[in-house]
Amino acid sequence: MSDQQPLNLSRGFLQALGTKLFVYYENRIPEKAAVVVVSNHRSFMDPMMLMVGLHHPLRTVCHHYMGEVPVLREAVEMLGCFPLENSSQRGTAFLRRSITLLQQNSWLAMFPEGADPMVDLTAPTEMKPFQEGFAHLLLRAKVPNLVVLPIAIASEEEQVTQTIPLKLLYWFDPSETLFNQWSLHPMVVYQRANLLIGRPYWITPKLQDHYRGKQTIEGVSHLTDYCQKEIKHLLQAGCY
Description:
eight-stranded mixed β-sheet; Plipid/glycerol_acylTrfase; acyltransferase
Protein backbone atom coordinates (compact mmCIF):
# COMPACT_ATOMS: atom_id res chain seq x y z
CA MET A 1 0.00 0.00 0.00
CA SER A 2 1.45 3.38 -1.02
CA ASP A 3 1.28 6.26 1.45
CA GLN A 4 -1.26 8.15 -0.68
CA GLN A 5 -3.43 5.19 -1.70
CA PRO A 6 -6.09 5.59 1.06
CA LEU A 7 -6.51 9.28 0.19
CA ASN A 8 -6.68 8.66 -3.57
CA LEU A 9 -9.20 5.84 -3.16
CA SER A 10 -11.31 8.01 -0.86
CA ARG A 11 -11.40 10.84 -3.36
CA GLY A 12 -12.44 8.45 -6.13
CA PHE A 13 -15.14 6.84 -3.99
CA LEU A 14 -16.76 10.13 -2.96
CA GLN A 15 -16.62 11.34 -6.55
CA ALA A 16 -18.28 8.14 -7.78
CA LEU A 17 -21.08 8.53 -5.23
CA GLY A 18 -21.55 12.20 -6.12
CA THR A 19 -21.07 13.22 -2.47
CA LYS A 20 -20.72 16.98 -1.94
CA LEU A 21 -18.37 17.78 0.93
CA PHE A 22 -17.84 21.27 2.35
CA VAL A 23 -14.94 21.90 4.73
CA TYR A 24 -14.83 24.65 7.37
CA TYR A 25 -11.99 25.98 9.57
CA GLU A 26 -9.18 24.44 7.50
CA ASN A 27 -6.80 26.93 9.14
CA ARG A 28 -7.04 24.79 12.29
CA ILE A 29 -5.27 21.82 10.67
CA PRO A 30 -1.90 21.46 12.47
CA GLU A 31 1.36 21.56 10.53
CA LYS A 32 4.42 19.47 11.35
CA ALA A 33 2.65 17.54 14.09
CA ALA A 34 1.73 14.01 15.08
CA VAL A 35 -2.06 14.14 14.65
CA VAL A 36 -4.82 12.03 16.17
CA VAL A 37 -8.17 12.87 14.58
CA VAL A 38 -11.30 12.23 16.69
CA SER A 39 -14.75 12.38 15.10
CA ASN A 40 -18.39 11.40 15.40
CA HIS A 41 -19.38 8.25 13.52
CA ARG A 42 -22.57 7.29 11.68
CA SER A 43 -21.41 5.91 8.33
CA PHE A 44 -18.87 3.59 6.73
CA MET A 45 -17.92 6.68 4.70
CA ASP A 46 -16.56 8.59 7.69
CA PRO A 47 -12.85 7.66 7.29
CA MET A 48 -13.00 8.68 3.63
CA MET A 49 -14.78 11.94 4.46
CA LEU A 50 -12.03 12.82 6.95
CA MET A 51 -9.21 12.06 4.53
CA VAL A 52 -10.73 14.06 1.69
CA GLY A 53 -11.53 16.99 3.98
CA LEU A 54 -8.04 17.07 5.49
CA HIS A 55 -6.23 16.30 2.21
CA HIS A 56 -4.18 13.78 4.15
CA PRO A 57 -4.13 9.95 4.38
CA LEU A 58 -5.21 8.49 7.73
CA ARG A 59 -4.70 5.20 9.52
CA THR A 60 -8.12 4.53 10.99
CA VAL A 61 -8.94 2.26 13.91
CA CYS A 62 -11.89 0.02 12.93
CA HIS A 63 -14.03 -2.74 14.43
CA HIS A 64 -12.56 -6.19 15.04
CA TYR A 65 -15.00 -8.00 12.73
CA MET A 66 -13.72 -6.03 9.72
CA GLY A 67 -10.46 -7.92 9.95
CA GLU A 68 -12.25 -11.27 10.09
CA VAL A 69 -14.52 -11.03 7.02
CA PRO A 70 -12.86 -12.01 3.71
CA VAL A 71 -12.89 -9.29 1.01
CA LEU A 72 -13.96 -6.69 3.60
CA ARG A 73 -10.62 -7.20 5.33
CA GLU A 74 -8.72 -6.42 2.14
CA ALA A 75 -10.95 -3.42 1.37
CA VAL A 76 -10.43 -1.71 4.73
CA GLU A 77 -6.69 -2.33 4.58
CA MET A 78 -6.55 -0.54 1.21
CA LEU A 79 -8.26 2.42 2.88
CA GLY A 80 -5.63 2.52 5.62
CA CYS A 81 -7.81 1.01 8.35
CA PHE A 82 -6.47 -1.40 10.96
CA PRO A 83 -8.96 -3.58 12.88
CA LEU A 84 -8.87 -3.92 16.64
CA GLU A 85 -7.73 -7.25 18.08
CA ASN A 86 -10.12 -9.62 19.84
CA SER A 87 -11.40 -8.56 23.24
CA SER A 88 -8.71 -10.31 25.30
CA GLN A 89 -5.85 -8.48 23.55
CA ARG A 90 -7.58 -5.31 22.43
CA GLY A 91 -6.26 -2.62 24.78
CA THR A 92 -2.57 -3.54 24.71
CA ALA A 93 -2.49 -4.19 20.96
CA PHE A 94 -4.36 -0.95 20.23
CA LEU A 95 -1.86 1.15 22.19
CA ARG A 96 1.18 -0.61 20.75
CA ARG A 97 0.03 -0.35 17.12
CA SER A 98 -1.16 3.25 17.44
CA ILE A 99 2.05 4.50 19.06
CA THR A 100 4.14 2.76 16.38
CA LEU A 101 2.13 4.44 13.61
CA LEU A 102 2.48 7.87 15.25
CA GLN A 103 6.24 7.35 15.53
CA GLN A 104 6.24 6.58 11.79
CA ASN A 105 4.61 9.99 11.11
CA SER A 106 1.19 8.53 10.24
CA TRP A 107 -1.94 10.46 11.16
CA LEU A 108 -4.49 8.42 13.10
CA ALA A 109 -8.30 8.61 13.05
CA MET A 110 -10.52 7.29 15.83
CA PHE A 111 -14.26 7.16 16.47
CA PRO A 112 -14.79 7.13 20.26
CA GLU A 113 -18.51 6.33 19.95
CA GLY A 114 -17.61 2.87 18.71
CA ALA A 115 -20.14 0.85 16.71
CA ASP A 116 -23.20 2.03 18.68
CA PRO A 117 -24.37 4.89 16.42
CA MET A 118 -23.98 2.75 13.29
CA VAL A 119 -26.15 -0.05 14.69
CA ASP A 120 -28.61 2.05 16.67
CA LEU A 121 -28.56 4.87 14.13
CA THR A 122 -28.46 8.36 15.63
CA ALA A 123 -29.86 11.53 14.12
CA PRO A 124 -27.29 13.72 12.31
CA THR A 125 -27.09 16.14 15.27
CA GLU A 126 -26.78 13.45 17.97
CA MET A 127 -23.85 11.53 19.44
CA LYS A 128 -23.37 8.55 21.71
CA PRO A 129 -21.10 8.87 24.79
CA PHE A 130 -17.39 8.74 23.99
CA GLN A 131 -15.21 5.84 25.06
CA GLU A 132 -11.88 6.90 26.59
CA GLY A 133 -9.34 4.72 24.76
CA PHE A 134 -8.09 7.56 22.57
CA ALA A 135 -7.40 9.73 25.63
CA HIS A 136 -5.30 6.99 27.23
CA LEU A 137 -3.31 6.75 24.01
CA LEU A 138 -2.68 10.49 23.87
CA LEU A 139 -1.44 10.59 27.45
CA ARG A 140 0.75 7.49 27.14
CA ALA A 141 2.33 8.08 23.73
CA LYS A 142 5.78 9.63 24.13
CA VAL A 143 5.61 11.25 20.70
CA PRO A 144 6.80 14.84 20.16
CA ASN A 145 4.44 17.52 18.81
CA LEU A 146 1.37 15.38 19.50
CA VAL A 147 -2.06 16.94 19.00
CA VAL A 148 -5.67 15.74 19.02
CA LEU A 149 -7.91 17.28 16.36
CA PRO A 150 -11.68 17.01 16.97
CA ILE A 151 -13.78 17.05 13.79
CA ALA A 152 -17.55 16.99 13.24
CA ILE A 153 -19.09 15.28 10.21
CA ALA A 154 -22.43 17.03 9.81
CA SER A 155 -24.81 15.40 7.35
CA GLU A 156 -27.24 17.64 5.47
CA GLU A 157 -28.59 15.11 2.95
CA GLU A 158 -28.24 11.35 3.12
CA GLN A 159 -29.78 8.03 2.14
CA VAL A 160 -30.30 5.26 4.68
CA THR A 161 -30.78 1.67 3.56
CA GLN A 162 -31.05 -1.59 5.49
CA THR A 163 -28.40 -4.17 4.65
CA ILE A 164 -27.44 -7.51 6.22
CA PRO A 165 -28.74 -9.02 9.49
CA LEU A 166 -26.52 -8.01 12.39
CA LYS A 167 -26.44 -11.65 13.49
CA LEU A 168 -24.12 -12.42 10.57
CA LEU A 169 -21.53 -10.06 12.04
CA TYR A 170 -21.98 -11.66 15.46
CA TRP A 171 -20.64 -14.91 14.01
CA PHE A 172 -17.40 -13.11 13.18
CA ASP A 173 -17.22 -11.23 16.50
CA PRO A 174 -19.25 -12.81 19.34
CA SER A 175 -17.75 -10.35 21.83
CA GLU A 176 -19.85 -7.53 20.32
CA THR A 177 -23.25 -7.79 21.99
CA LEU A 178 -24.67 -5.17 19.63
CA PHE A 179 -24.52 -7.75 16.85
CA ASN A 180 -26.50 -10.39 18.77
CA GLN A 181 -29.81 -9.59 17.05
CA TRP A 182 -31.53 -10.30 13.75
CA SER A 183 -32.41 -6.70 12.83
CA LEU A 184 -30.81 -5.29 9.70
CA HIS A 185 -27.66 -3.17 9.75
CA PRO A 186 -28.47 0.41 8.61
CA MET A 187 -26.12 1.98 6.05
CA VAL A 188 -25.80 5.76 5.70
CA VAL A 189 -24.64 7.22 2.37
CA TYR A 190 -23.93 10.95 2.51
CA GLN A 191 -25.14 13.04 -0.40
CA ARG A 192 -24.21 16.42 1.09
CA ALA A 193 -22.23 16.97 4.28
CA ASN A 194 -20.13 19.53 6.15
CA LEU A 195 -16.78 18.77 7.73
CA LEU A 196 -16.11 21.19 10.60
CA ILE A 197 -12.61 21.16 12.04
CA GLY A 198 -12.39 21.88 15.75
CA ARG A 199 -9.74 23.57 17.86
CA PRO A 200 -6.65 21.36 18.17
CA TYR A 201 -5.55 20.37 21.66
CA TRP A 202 -1.79 19.95 22.09
CA ILE A 203 -0.60 17.13 24.35
CA THR A 204 2.30 18.57 26.31
CA PRO A 205 4.95 16.55 28.16
CA LYS A 206 3.56 18.02 31.40
CA LEU A 207 0.15 16.46 30.69
CA GLN A 208 1.74 13.11 29.95
CA ASP A 209 3.94 13.23 33.06
CA HIS A 210 0.76 13.47 35.16
CA TYR A 211 -0.59 10.21 33.70
CA ARG A 212 -0.59 8.27 36.95
CA GLY A 213 -2.71 7.84 40.06
CA LYS A 214 -5.71 10.10 40.56
CA GLN A 215 -4.45 12.48 37.90
CA THR A 216 -4.83 9.70 35.31
CA ILE A 217 -8.60 9.73 35.74
CA GLU A 218 -8.73 13.51 35.69
CA GLY A 219 -6.55 13.81 32.58
CA VAL A 220 -8.44 11.15 30.64
CA SER A 221 -11.82 12.62 31.55
CA HIS A 222 -10.69 16.13 30.62
CA LEU A 223 -9.50 15.11 27.14
CA THR A 224 -12.59 12.99 26.49
CA ASP A 225 -14.96 15.78 27.60
CA TYR A 226 -13.07 18.39 25.57
CA CYS A 227 -13.34 16.42 22.33
CA GLN A 228 -16.95 15.40 22.86
CA LYS A 229 -18.09 18.95 23.67
CA GLU A 230 -16.10 20.46 20.79
CA ILE A 231 -17.58 18.03 18.27
CA LYS A 232 -21.10 18.41 19.65
CA HIS A 233 -20.88 22.20 19.31
CA LEU A 234 -19.58 21.94 15.74
CA LEU A 235 -22.17 19.31 14.85
CA GLN A 236 -25.07 21.48 15.93
CA ALA A 237 -23.63 24.42 14.00
CA GLY A 238 -23.03 22.36 10.87
CA CYS A 239 -26.43 20.67 10.53
CA TYR A 240 -28.89 23.19 9.14
